[in-house]
Amino acid sequence: LRVPQTGERDDPLAIGVAVHDALEQGYRTGQFYPTSKVLEELGLSSEAMLEVRVMAEAYRAAYPSGPVEFKWHGLEAPISYEIDGHEVLAKLDGFFEVEEPTTVSGGVADIHLEPGIYSFETKTKIPGFDRGLYEAEWQSNSQASFQLLTLKANAARLGFKPEDVKGVLVNVIERPTVFE
Counting beta carbons within 10 angstroms of the beta carbon of residue 143, is it exposed (0 to 12), middle (13 to 18) or buried (19 or more)? Predict the structure, then answer.
């Protein structure tokens, strides 16, 4: 991964972090804009910042009342555990508890969640990249499996049982197409 100089970053990771922060700020304060601390750390290009603003505003327009309210247990949580004598370090965007059967709007289709614990992951997708290929790529690199393993391995420490872990909810935000 090439990390560009300050003021030049436009990579998916930097854009995703900025969008995540803008949404968090927006639903908390009403201002859908990343914090100055995050912007300073990331050093986004002006084009990337435009993408962040467009994605945050589109998300706000689609979900004006904010995301579905879940009982959150952690956000941006780094978790370490051991497998066969090797330390594993993982990061979860978040994990939450569903207390009763719930349906959330999934953009493409509604998603039905049964009571339990779910990992939450936010990803950004390049415009025009086939959704089916995007999903297949995400599945093939086993991200969901690692997230489920992380939650189950840490269940007791986090206050629940391994069998309470039900799945991963992935929030995909498509980067906007910029027309010049």
Answer: middle
With residue 12 as reference, give the H or E element that holds it.
helix 12-29
Rounded to whole angstroms, the Cα distance separating 162 from 166 reads 9
pLDDT digits (tens, 9 = 90+) for 40-70: 889 898 888 998 998 888 878 877 666 666 7
CA pair distance 174, 157, nearest whole angstrom = 35
Query: In DSSP terms, which residues pair with 91 in a beta bridge?
Result: 78
Block residue for tokens 């066969």:
84
> Using one digit for the tens of pLDDT, what is the confidence trace for 82-100?
888 988 888 777 788 899 9
Q: Answer whether 168's CB lies under 8 Å from 119's CB.
A: yes
With 0-12 / 13-18 / 19 or more C-beta atoms within 10 angstroms meaning exposed / middle / buried, residue 130 is exposed
Total count of residues recorded for the chain: 180
DSSP lists the bridge partners of residue 118 as 96, 167
